[in-house]
Each structure stands twice: as structure tokens, then as C-alpha cells.
């Protein structure tokens, strides 16, 4: 995947009013730079999704990359899948992101094919799946709609199938919450963002990205029918879980 992109300068100029964050063409153009500099451990989670695919994808099954953005996870899954007769279904509701994804992800012969689908993941049919990824996607779904989505995912998984759920999380302890937020902001500053950019992006995401605690995620996954959900990665206030059917 061609990771070249413009430098993220979306929130570099003072705004009188900061609107809600949207995955539009402006964001799509800078997204690889934006997420690399904003999400600690992002590259690790994406790359190791391919390792999980090698271990867990079953022959003649579907893999779903829900909220695929520019297709980084889809490409990692494709590189990891060794089972025969599989298909990757990459779903996003942003036409701008999918347009970039189709351009950036090469059509490789003799590799698991990727179908790009512009759709709302809350209504996308999920069936015959052995692996599903929700990498930093559920946090953008309204809280009241999350259980229904996870239940549909669980029902669409084959026996032995897994869900990879990666999220920014909140913490019940106010001091821990403060520490993790400060460390995340320090990470952004170390990657070249200034305080204005950090502040304005945080305002843009305030009503769009709603984080929950680890306990809330695990309880909902159990309610949705998953047998267990284990942390396999964490860096500051970003985690990834493997939930098993």
C-alpha cells in the first residue's frame, strides 16, 4: 500500500468555530499522516491484524474490515491470509475514503480479493465470517447502536471466528484518565502537532468519537454473545481486543 500522503494541516489555522469531524476529501488526502501521528500503536495493530488473519482465517470464509478507511487493515489481512477460497469485504460509509482506498491498494493476483463496499456498517450483511475487524471504528458509532452491531457481527461469525476490536478508551479513575490523556497529547506533540491543532481536533471529535471504558466494552461483547474478549495490545488510552465466538 502506498502510504505517501499530504502532511496533516487540517487544524493548523485558528477557527472561529470548530465543526464536527468528518471523513471528507480533505481528511482522506492526509489520513495516513494524520493517523500515524495521532494514534499510538496504530501501525502495530494494523500489521499484527495480518498475523491474526494467518492464524484464524478459515478456508472458504469471508473476512470483514468494517470502517476500512483507506484499506490499511484490508491489505494487512490480505498479506496474512493463507486459507483458500476467502474474500475480504471492506466497508466504509465515506465515498472519499473508499475512492482513495481503491487507488492506494493494488489489485494483486493470486491474493485474497478485496471487495470495496460503500455502506453503513450497521446494516451491512455479515455472513460466513471467520475474522472481522473493527479497528478504531466502533467509537464513531452512536453508543445506543453499538450492541446491535456487535450482536450482528457475532451471529455472522463461524464457530471459532474472531472479532478484532480496537478503540480509544476512557478510564473510570479520574487521575488515570488525566494521565492517559496527557500522555496521548504528549505523543501528538512529539509527532509535530502544536497545541492549537491538538485543541481544535479534540473539539471536532468531542461529539463524534465517544470513548468507553474497557469494562463497558467487555460487558457489551458478552451481552452480544461473545464467549470472551481479551486485550492483546495497549498503548496509553488505545487498546485492541480479540473477541471469540
UniProtKB/TrEMBL annotation:
It is an enzyme of class 2 (transferase). GO terms for molecular function: carboxyl- or carbamoyltransferase activity; S-adenosyl-L-methionine binding. InterPro entries: CmoA, Methyltransf_25, SAM-dependent_MTases_sf. NCBIfam families: carboxy-S-adenosyl-L-methionine synthase CmoA, PRK15451.1. Homodimer. Catalyzes the conversion of S-adenosyl-L-methionine (SAM) to carboxy-S-adenosyl-L-methionine (Cx-SAM). HAMAP family: Cx_SAM_synthase. It comes from Sedimenticola selenatireducens. Keywords: S-adenosyl-L-methionine, Transferase. One of its GO terms (biological process) is tRNA wobble uridine modification. S-adenosyl-L-methionine binds at residues 42, 67-69, 92-93, 120-121, 135, 202. This is Carboxy-S-adenosyl-L-methionine synthase. Residues 65-161 form the Methyltransferase domain. It comes from the Bacteria. The keyword Phosphoprotein does not apply. Transmembrane segments: none annotated. It holds the Pfam family Methyltransf_25. Belongs to the class I-like SAM-binding methyltransferase superfamily. Cx-SAM synthase family. It catalyses: prephenate + S-adenosyl-L-methionine = carboxy-S-adenosyl-L-methionine + 3-phenylpyruvate + H2O. Its EC number is 2.1.3.-.
Amino acid at each position: 500500500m502506498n502510504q505517501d500522503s499530504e502532511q496533516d494541516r487540517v487544524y493548523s489555522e485558528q477557527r472561529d468555530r470548530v465543526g464536527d469531524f468528518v471523513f471528507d476529501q480533505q481528511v482522506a488526502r492526509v489520513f495516513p499522516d494524520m493517523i500515524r501521528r495521532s494514534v499510538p500503536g496504530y501501525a502495530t495493530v494494523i500489521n499484527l491484524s495480518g498475523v491474526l488473519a494467518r492464524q484464524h482465517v478459515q478456508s472458504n470464509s469471508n473476512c470483514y474490515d468494517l470502517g476500512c478507511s483507506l484499506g490499511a487493515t484490508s491489505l494487512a489481512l490480505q498479506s496474512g491470509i493463507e486459507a483458500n477460497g476467502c474474500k475480504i469485504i471492506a466497508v466504509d460509509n465515506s465515498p472519499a475514503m473508499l475512492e482513495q482506498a481503491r487507488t492506494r491498494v493494488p489489485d494483486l493476483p493470486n491474493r485474497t480479493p478485496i471487495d470495496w463496499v460503500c455502506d453503513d456498517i450497521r446494516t451491512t450483511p455479515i455472513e460466513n465470517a471467520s475474522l472481522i475487524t473493527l479497528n478504531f471504528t466502533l467509537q464513531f458509532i452512536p453508543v445506543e447502536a453499538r450492541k446491535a452491531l456487535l450482536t450482528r457481527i457475532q451471529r455472522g461469525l463461524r464457530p471459532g471466528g474472531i472479532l478484532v476490536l480496537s478503540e480509544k478508551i476512557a478510564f473510570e479513575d479520574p487521575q488515570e484518565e488525566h494521565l492517559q490523556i496527557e500522555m496521548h497529547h504528549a505523543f501528538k506533540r512529539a509527532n509535530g502537532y502544536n497545541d492549537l491543532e491538538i485543541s481544535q481536533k479534540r473539539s471536532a471529535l468531542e461529539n463524534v468519537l465517544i470513548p468507553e471504558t474497557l469494562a463497558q466494552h467487555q460487558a457489551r461483547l458478552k451481552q452480544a454473545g461473545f464467549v470472551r474478549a481479551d486485550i492483546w495490545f495497549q498503548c496509553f488510552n488505545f487498546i485492541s481486543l480479540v473477541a471469540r465466538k
